Recover the amino acids of this structure.
C-alpha cells in the first residue's frame, strides 16, 4: 500500500475532491448523486456539482475511474479500490 500511497500522493494533493471521489466509489456510492452526497457529508458543506464532475472527469482521463453505465462509476484498479475502501 505504501507504493500506491506514494504514486497517488501528488494527485491527492492537487484537490481534496480526488480522494473523496475515490473513497465514495470504493465504499459503494456508484452514482453521481451518491458520490456528491457522500462528499457533502464528509466535508459538512455544500459541494457544487461542477466540482464533482471535474474530479470524475479528470480521474477518467487518468484511467483511474471508468463510467460503466450512464451515471455509474467504478475504480478500475482493484488495489486502489481496496485502499480507498479502508480509509
Amino acid at each position: 500500500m505504501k507504493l500506491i500511497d506514494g504514486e497517488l500522493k501528488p494527485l491527492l494533493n492537487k484537490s481534496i475532491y480526488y480522494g473523496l471521489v475515490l473513497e465514495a466509489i470504493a465504499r459503494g456510492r456508484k452514482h453521481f448523486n451518491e458520490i456528491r452526497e457522500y462528499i457533502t457529508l464528509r466535508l459538512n458543506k455544500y459541494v457544487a456539482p461542477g466540482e464533482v464532475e471535474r474530479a470524475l472527469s479528470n480521474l477518467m482521463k487518468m484511467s483511474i475511474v471508468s463510467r460503466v453505465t450512464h451515471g455509474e462509476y467504478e475504480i478500475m484498479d482493484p488495489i486502489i479500490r481496496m485502499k480507498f475502501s479502508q480509509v
